[in-house]
Amino acid sequence: MAKNMNKKISTGVGIAAVAVAAIIVSTVIWFALTPQTQTLMQTAPAPSHQLNSMQGKIENKSQPTETINKLDFSKIQFDACGGKAKYEKMPWWNKFGVQVGKLNYYTENYIDSAVKDANKNDTLNPNKIKYSYETFCNDKNFKDSVVCGDGKNKKMSLDDFKDYGEGCLSKDGSVFVAVFPGEYMGGGNYIFRYDIINDSLEAAQKIDENQAYGSAWVDPPSVFGKRFGDIIKMTGGGGDAGCGSNTQFDYDFVSNQIKMIKRCTSCQQEKAQCETFK
Predict the structure, then answer these.
(1) Could you give phi then psi for residue 229, rounded to 5 degrees?
(2) What secondary structure does DSSP assign to 7-45, as a single string?
(3) CA 76, 79, 85, 87: dihedral to nearest 10 degrees?
(4) Are strands 190-195 and 200-203 parallel, antiparallel or unpaired?
(5) Which residue among 39, 95, 105, 274 is least packed, with the fewest CB closer than 10 Å?
(6) How many helices, marked H, and strands, marked E, lie in the chain?
(7) Any bridge partners for residue 223, and if so which?
(8) Which of 272, 277, 278 has the alpha carbon at shortest distance from 246?
(9) Which helix (H) or strand (E) holds 50?
């Protein structure tokens, strides 16, 4: 009987030992596999939306920080306007001048218009040569044009903002708009919207929708008129050899775009001929 008990005990101990060994092996395997599973989860490809988010963060680090205090131009109200003398003592005036000085006096549109006009000039261009800027400036008939030589890269300056320009400062002192009427037919003409808070300058874009005058300025405006909502009314005029013209513009201050609305011309005592643009 003792032998049978010993046999049973030995068998029980053997079974227990096997069970314990199985548990130990399972535990070892679990611990061995668990870190690998975590590592795979950590290195597995992220969902596409997470990758896009991560990529965006990386790109944002390499890009300049966006302006924090972005202005709502539609809420800006202006005080009375005036010439250079009214504003040149303002603390932001020199910074405004630095921004203006980064621009060329003659815009690309004005230069392009000079070349296009030469291509259509039957008197000076009887052979109807199709000029490029380079061939235009090398031609004896046009080489003295203001846009040739150093003229193309002539810089803007606050010295151009003398007796004829006008500026308007917002009531809260955050925005300044200024007009440089430039020369006859608009060389050097600009309308600026200057964000004083963020030291940011934008030149107004001239919009030409089906207009025969193309990119050239005709009768560039020199003063700001009344504002109606987002639109500031502006007027320019000119004259030569007994003839005169008057042109009306709409300047959308919020979008910073200006558009010719109506132009009237007359010679001597003749009745004015007007054309309206949509």
Answers:
(1) 65, -125
(2) HHHHHHHHHHHHHHHHHHHHHHHHHHHHHHHHHHHHHSP
(3) -40
(4) antiparallel
(5) 39
(6) 6, 11
(7) 235
(8) 272
(9) helix 48-62
| DSSP conformation class of 155 | B
In the block, tokens 């606050």 appear at 158
Question: Considering the entire predicted model, what is its pTM?
Answer: 0.68
* 252 three-state secondary structure: strand
114: phi then psi, degrees, rounded to nearest 5: -60, -40
Phi and psi dihedrals of 84, rounded to 5? -60, -40
Cα separation of 174 and 152, whole Å? Answer: 32
What does the block give as tokens for 244? 């005169």
Q: Which residues contact 69 (CB under 8 A, 6 or more apart)?
A: 197, 198
Structure token digits, residue 193:
């919207």
Q: How far apart are CA 139 and CA 156, in angstroms?
A: 27
The residue with greater pLDDT, 67 or 249, is 249
Please write the tens of the pLDDT for every residue from 146-187: 889 888 888 888 887 766 689 999 999 999 999 988 876 677
Are the beta carbons of 72 and 128 closer than 8 angstroms?
no
Instruction: Specify the 3-state DSSP secondary structure of 240.
Output: strand
Pairing of strands 243-252, 231-240: antiparallel
The Cα diameter of the chain in Å comes to 146
Q: Indicate the DSSP class of residue 264.
A: E
**Cα torsion 84, 87, 93, 99: sign:** negative
Give the position of tokens 């003409």: 189
**CA angle, corner 49, sides to 48 and 54, nearest 5?**
95
Task: Give the residue extent of every domain in the chain.
Answer: 73-105+155-276
Half-sphere CA count of 234, side-chain side, radius 13 A: 29
